[in-house]
Amino acid sequence: xxxxxxxxxxxxxxxxxxxxxxxxxxxxxxxxxxxxxxxxxxxxxxxxxxxxxxxxxxxxxxxxxxxxxxxxxxxxxxxxxxxxxxxxxxxxxxxxxxxxxxxxxxxxxxxxxxxxxxxxxxxxxxxxxxxxxxxxxxxxxxxxxxxxxxxxxxxxxxxxxxxxxxxxxxxxxxxxxxxxxxxxxxxxxxxxxxxxxxxxxxxxxxxxxx
Amino acid sequence: xxxxxxxxxxxxxxxxxxxxxxxxxxxxxxxxxxxxxxxxxxxxxxxxxxxxxxxxxxxxxxxxxxxxxxxxxxxxxxxxxxxxxxxxxxxxxxxxxxxxxxxxxxxxxxxxxxxxxxxxxxxxxxxxxxxxxxxxxxxxxxxxxxxxxxxxxxxxxxxxxxxxxxxxxxxxxxxxxxxxxxxxxxxxxxxxxxxxxxxxxxxxxxxxxx
Amino acid sequence: xxxxxxxxxxxxxxxxxxxxxxxxxxxxxxxxxxxxxxxxxxxxxxxxxxxxxxxxxxxxxxxxxxxxxxxxxxxxxxxxxxxxxxxxxxxxxxxxxxxxxxxxxxxxxxxxxxxxxxxxxxxxxxxxxxxxxxxxxxxxxxxxxxxxxxxxxxxxxxxxxxxxxxxxxxxxxxxxxxxxxxxxxxxxxxxxxxxxxxxxxxxxxxxxxx
Amino acid sequence: xxxxxxxxxxxxxxxxxxxxxxxxxxxxxxxxxxxxxxxxxxxxxxxxxxxxxxxxxxxxxxxxxxxxxxxxxxxxxxxxxxxxxxxxxxxxxxxxxxxxxxxxxxxxxxxxxxxxxxxxxxxxxxxxxxxxxxxxxxxxxxxxxxxxxxxxxxxxxxxxxxxxxxxxxxxxxxxxxxxxxxxxxxxxxxxxxxxxxxxxxxxxxxxxxx
Lengths: 210, 210, 210, 210
What we know:
Four copies of one chain form a homotetramer.
Chain A: E1 10-16, H1 26-29, H2 37-53, E2 58-63, E3 104-108, H3 119-126, E4 128-136, H4 138-151, E5 155-164, H5 168-181, E6 186-187, H6 189-197, H7 201-206
Parallel strand pairs in A: 1-2, 1-4, 2-3, 4-5, 5-6
Helix pairs in contact in A: 2-6, 4-5
Keywords (chains A, B, C, D): Hydrolase
InterPro entries (chains A, B, C, D): Isochorismatase-like_dom, Isochorismatase-like_hydrls, Isochorismatase-like_sf
Protein name (chains A, B, C, D): Isochorismatase
């Protein structure tokens, strides 16, 4: 039973690492992803379109590592191989999920969108208080971005049919972990479309930038 | 198959939130914990003693919230009730797991030991590069401290028989998630005791503070 | 010509490092301070009392270093000697400038109040947007706390007759630097008392915690 | 009298905001700069060339704000007008001070290079411990980057004849403030060239990435 409204204050749609590698073979892009990438892309498109129709800001994250490997940190010590290298096939954003000139494109070097980026600067500028996450991996970049947002007092929602994990089991475990943090955080794209519909433009512009 | 040695550079033993509430009823302390708290305390004591014998630094975290509730952030929006309030029974550190005057006691307001604390200042001062985590909850404070340490380039190990989760299923899912990040991260207390034994004092003092 | 109102949204009074060492000899406490410490203490008392009368939150910072010296970082590479050691005379807060149980006492290891502390957690909990700084040193802890607050989008004010520098010249240079960042930031205690007077309790409680 | 060697461990040359606006009129680019920009550019070129000859890493910062103004924070509340807008004349890096493909180009939204960027990730990857700062403004981006580096335990040096302030007085006050933090921090380009000369490639590669 959720203890907070679905959207509190001003929402932002956050598209996490929707890169073409999500639909490629792990042996080619270094990371295993559960099936269904192209379906998730299609559903994310619907959410992005709905957000744009309502002037809800959209942030597009892209994980990119320099070719020298200098910024991988400990990311190659675990299950993932070399991944998301600048200029390599699979690293580019999905063609249908790219920012307009007025939207936000943030390159990151770590899983969490809060580490080593200007995400917090953008969120403060927007006066955002609810983050709606889609993309991948559910159990890595989505989960750790959620945890960081939660620990910085944001309301966070995850669209279960728009996120994919490194495996189905890890996807489900991560959804469960996020629901533990904020009851009602896990939702589906239909619920988000409905919530966006009920956000009048007036309401949104009242959530002003301080 | 671990890709890195068990201990790289200078190790630090990190005791996460070993508070007396871990052995109390959830209805009294706000948080469910899987059975076995007192056994975990006993095993943690062995590790702390071994660390002290080898001059390996020990950090004791304690989650504490001000009675006004001002610093809970979103922590009451999920599965946990009011918890770890200053001055309330269950918040104090386990009597057998408290810092010596020369050790480190760090109060935190969030799950991750890196948020809102001087943990990084201490770790830099110590020249630490491997963190060995014990305590709880496996799937909350331990997991998110691990993720933050990992994303700050530390080598991190979790002692599976010295950490407890909010449920057995979540405990196991969190261990799996951490092993995904660093292969070989999940170990048991016997392995740590053995590794500490093979650390000569000479080796340790060579890992100098810069 | 200030471009913003003197107080925007909810104010917080921030007392920076008003420790007894400010009135002692540099050769004893490691840090030079320009004359006038006891006068500044007296004026700070007036502001603290006025804040309490209006339910304006007060944060008391205290710089403290562990006796081992582990957390000094590079602080001994410059003009300052060993300073603010835990348990040593000069480190304790001025007796007349100590937090009530309902106020905030934050120990810090660095100059900026934002580094290695839970200050941001507290400020978010309070819904604070304007910080009013008093204490010392104008050119070190006050200046760098100001710069960090400014870069995190807070409105910041400095009470010139309630802050003291490492020298009069550095005090004045730091005030000039802060005025460069936010026009109208530099004020005096009379102006703050007047502004507090015009804050009705109603206004303040409207600046609610989200 | 400096208490530390001029270069400790692995050095990095950091070129702060050497953008063409530094040589333009304040009424056109929003920021006053003291005379001598083109001379500073020329001297910076010498340092960059010397660093490249020795395989010393070079980081090029560029302050850029989105045209919507969303990420200015409080930067327009003080002495500076609208500045460093993406795509506007004056925002681009000086043509002679641009990164090679193997070097580091970091866009920032705030004064300090540590806020909202991946600078710390890069510095850890490089195993850097001494930062040598050139560029501008001495009293804003250079000073606050210095303060943040200092508070994160880096050794920091500022090349006085390669940095320019918002005025000569503020330039000098900022140099004095940085020398207060680390004795011997203020140097000139001749000293840096000499120090680079005495760094053998062997020494440098010994300062390895952990």
